[in-house]
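Sharing a chain and its predicted structure for anyone who wants a worked example. Both blocks are below, sequence first, tokens second.
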Amino acid sequence: MRKLFLLLALVPLIVSCGGGSGQYFGSPNMPGPTAEERAAQIATEETGNFYYGRRYHVKKTRFWGYLRKPRQPWSSAKLVVMNESRGKQPDRLPEVGPPEARYGYDNNYEYKIKGYYTGDTVYEINSNQFLPEFMLTGYERLDKNPGWLFSPADHYDPSRITLLP
């Protein structure tokens, strides 16, 4: 009987550990196009020797955000740590100050990112993840408000990782 009680007590915890697309992280709060409109947009986007990047800022973390190859869905994107020895990331600003002029101000902005994966893996201590390192050589801001990232059900929380492919 005690084992059954323990098992029943753990079920909500186990279920809440599920993830992806915000389904367990709260109500959707990242409006945007329909899934069909997003797929059509991706299918017709420019291709080349660059990546599409979406800035993903979570307090106290040092990853930059997600990168994907042109015409690939966001579900194929990789969360990366930027190596800035050849160029500074778009929001390289102090962490204090007015919201529009500090580190992370550009959360969810979409960029055209130039550079390459170094082949190294970086430990991001605050999220306890090993992430690929990306050598940034340049960028161009494309959109300040592109909407949801992985699903129309996405829920962004600036204090914890909620956006997962």
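Comments welcome. Confidence is low (pLDDT under 50) at residues 3-23.
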